[in-house]
């Protein structure tokens, strides 16, 4: 039987949520026997194409490229799980949402005309259907382990109630 294809996708983020995965060393070794990790940016620059059985999404949607890519990922993923506060609410980069985008660009970059970013940083659920979400900055490792175990057991992942099925 084919192993489930799992991907961890990075968007606008600090990589901290991916690091939470990477430090689950024992679980990842077990996982490696039971699933095919086709894409994990923090661990390898290889980009495995879809379809994916499970896609974890880290970060927020802050650029046009982010927006296009997350829609493509949704189209080829059975289950999408948003991980972390950035994924659920836009993250620290959403501070700009209440201010003029141009002012932030000028304050942060010497040549803001070369920066390609959207005026707002938004959650994935603002753009696509998200099946599950794990809150936290970064998410709790125990919750990540539980979600991985549930997925491998073929049952509905147990996530905090308030974060289930955002649409
Ligand atoms: Fe980093 Fe926190 Fe965002 Fe995860 S939720 S990418 S740890 S800032």
TrEMBL record:
Coiled coil: none annotated. Its cofactor is [3Fe-4S] cluster. GO terms for molecular function: 3 iron, 4 sulfur cluster binding; oxidoreductase activity. Keywords: 3Fe-4S, Iron, Iron-sulfur, Metal-binding, Oxidoreductase. The keyword Iron applies. The keyword Iron-sulfur applies. Residues 14-150 form the NADH:ubiquinone oxidoreductase-like 20kDa subunit domain. This is Sulfhydrogenase subunit delta. It comes from Sulfurifustis variabilis. The chain holds residues 1 to 167 of 271 of the full protein.
